[in-house]
Fold each of these.
Amino acid sequence: MSKALAVSLTLLLLACAPKLRAQDPSAAVPFSPDQIDNLLAPVALYPDPLLAQILLAATFPDQVDQAARFCRAGASPDDIDTQPWDVSVKAVAHYPTVLYMMADSLDWTTALGQAYVNQTDDVMASVQRLRQEARSAGNLVTTPQQDVEVDDGNIEIWPAQPQFCYLPIYDPGLAFFGSGGAFGGSVITFSAGFPIGVWLNIDFDWRHRHIYYHGWSDGHRWVALSRPYVHISNLYLNNSLKNVSVNRSAINRAVNYANLTRYNSVHQNVIYGNSRIDTGVSNAAPTNNVNNKIIQRNGNVNDPRIEFYRGRAPEQPTAALVEPNRVEPNRAVPNVPAVAPPRAAEGTGNAAFGGNRGNFDAKVSSQRGQSSRAEASHPAPTARSSGGSGSQGGGGSHGGGGGRH
């Protein structure tokens, strides 16, 4: 019996060993500078005290998700501080717009937290690199909502108003490169003001590349300006918070890194799957190993056409995935639209939509509409011919308008 038990334990350890190695933080391949730039781009221009809380909260993605559900259920802001979340998550929860953005993009949030845990210096350098790009493009300037300061080459962003923090609204694909183009104007606008509260208890030390706890007594100029309006709470001001910590277990959380390509706003051709292959998270498509007799009896789970409906681009042309002359029993064949023969080029068309207008002829349709309106505008003649003439005179304007087609 003891021998059999020993064999069973050995087999169990062998089965678990690959997973344990895969989750070893030392096996994780670091993000490249381009990847980190793309991850930071959506928040790099946020005020320093809020950005610092975002980076720390990103290491608690599960709590971010819980906080978003809690707030969306109609919780009072006063109830946020009573929840068992990390202080960084509570701080972000006081800014619902930011909280919901993080909760709705948990793959991005988790990857951001993983980058900060493993590559703090690289993350800090990326923020400064992106801010320099935005400043060089003329988009990062001091406004009534934000105070932009340069200290020893480091760009700092502070709240300009002592009682309110404004969130910048911008497209990362524009803010770091140039102006508003042909339309002119700034590419960065601002949200309504959110209260500055005691929860903004940390800030950046850009010279030494770390986040520090200021405790509302030792900080940058914005701290001194906002301090008279802040209601002190021991929840956010206590000695236990002096050592700013992160949740290092975030590096073990599963992430679909393929979803991160949607954030390729600064560097377009960045792939995340290759660089994170050793983190124990597979980027390959799930297999179709379905151990269900009912499903197997009614469909072929290995049919390659299943790939077409996975919500991602197929690895080969769609036409190659469909066998037009094959019909399987008990299986519905998807309706594949026939390929229309090529048409002669049209003189007009919206280039943004490929000039494809189908069989719709705007001129003919307009003429039909004008005829209908004309009939409605010209009632049948009556004995009061003078009144009819006046009505027809009004209808003439419709006809005249259509004559310009």
Note: Strands lie at 146-151, 154-159, 164-165, 168-170, 188-190, 194-195, 202-205, 210-213.
Amino acid sequence: MNTTHRLSQAGSSTDHHARIVGLLAASGVPYAIHEHAPTVTIQDADTSLWFPVERLVKTVAFRIKDGGFVLAALCGYSQVDYKKLAAAVGINRTKLMRMAPEEIETELGYVLGGVAPFAPNDRTRILLDAGVMAWSTIYCGTGRQDRTLEIAPQELAHVAAASIATLAKDQSTNSTN
């Protein structure tokens, strides 16, 4: 595995899962992988899993028009503020596009419900919302719809080579993207 903690773009989400687990094992950080019935959305997870929804971290995939990708990880039902995300990446908001599920699978090798906050290639940046860092442990994707990673957010940021920024919409206002 290379030192930038990137995953090879080739392969299936099962391959991504194996690489993510390999990265975690090689890093020596404490973590747990939980097996469960497949889930696709945060609503599915909230309904059918035992994890507290406020500590469930969903990963949302974006394409940058000039090339590259961004995976933005936020807790529970938080929504991405596109202007904040664009500013954190250092681009104009108009250059940031949310990816469709088929694009995520084709371009990044992740299936919907299995998107993990780990870069599948060297053109992908990982950003964790600052709210993720408030918890002692969080639960996030592993590349599979039926496995969830439990890890301290600081350890996730380290192993995934993620940046931390305020990405979530302010819940007290009706911010538009």
Note: The chain has one domain: 13-165.
Amino acid sequence: MIYTVNMDTTKSKMKKKILSDSNFDKIWSIDDFKKFPRMDVLKAFSDLVKEGVLKRAKRGFYFRSKKTVLGETSYTDIQLALSKAKSKCNFYCISGLAGYNELGLTTQVPNNIVIACDYNLRSENKIKYIYRKKPVNGDKTERIILDAIIDIKTIPDTTIEKTINQIKILIKNNKVSLKSLVKSAFFETTRVKSVIGAIAEEFDFESDLLNKLKNSLNPLSMVYLNVGNALMYANNWQIRAER
């Protein structure tokens, strides 16, 4: 009997929270109700589906539909993918072409969505998850820029030189913290370290931290990129034109 009372309390509180949320785009999961017993939450979800309060999107994920003149609303693959990342990751954001497009690094519109996250998730359909470390300040713009440098040779509808110049514009306009980019670069690839370092040197960035970043480079490793005139200190950071 005690279990039944607890179960009813859990369901009523879950139902109240769900119905009071005006965001019909939200995907609900057990992670939204961590303070309740897991089994009670799972049973409550099942009951709320039977009552028509929720619909099941996928195992473990639920959504509210809304009636419109065009019919009932549903969820999108992106909403579900982000909810999946939220349930597993401490950090996640949309990156790849969608992210690069958002920051003006390309005009290309993606067919697939890339989600950068700090947990290994299996990609599915048109959603690709890539493992990435959480940037120092946890900012999605910072993560997208770091990823853009990783992908800098393959970003469509642009050039390496244009990509770097756009990153510098974002820094000048305070859309991203240069200090955070430099700190995050310590945990990234040689290419990222070199490009961020060369950019930071142009901004007269604090020498102590920049020297530490430079010393973290393998002196025998070269970064081959055709940066054109985008990086005046490219040679200082072991960046050479491609052969």
Note: The chain has a mean pLDDT of 92.
